[in-house]
Fold this protein.
Amino acid sequence: MSALHLLGRLFAILFGYCLAIVAASLFLTFYVPGWAPVEWISQHWAMGPDFFVYGYRTSPDMAETIDRVARVTMGLMSASAVGAMAFVPAGLCIVASEALRLRSAIFHVLAGGGISLALLAVTFMPASGPARLPDDWNLFLAAGFIGGVVYWLIAGRGAGIVGPSVPPDQA
């Protein structure tokens, strides 16, 4: 195990985590209603032919383009908040997968789903009434699954590669 190999593994873990968070955040932004307030933007603001924002409505095509750009922007910005909230539980799952050499896609997908449901349960606080998950909790679970798949594709398949080397005669 060389230092360069360890550095490459750490880079793969960090890169995989970042892309998993971005993928999950973009999924949330595009598919969970009310996750990003882009409907308000497209209803109240419009972009003119010279790309300045004016106070009038535009054509449906331009409003759809504004909606998509706003959703991608909100998804990328919300990725930092999602990544900060998921850092500790995801870090524990990553350490467990590296230490126990868990390379299974099922482990990473279930870990992503479990982390997303745990974060949803901790952060979702209704204004009144009993605390319960929102009606679209399954979309948050799907976002965790997507994050788990993306992480597995980038770094999870090689989990546990860096470790104590066993001499060939003892294997």
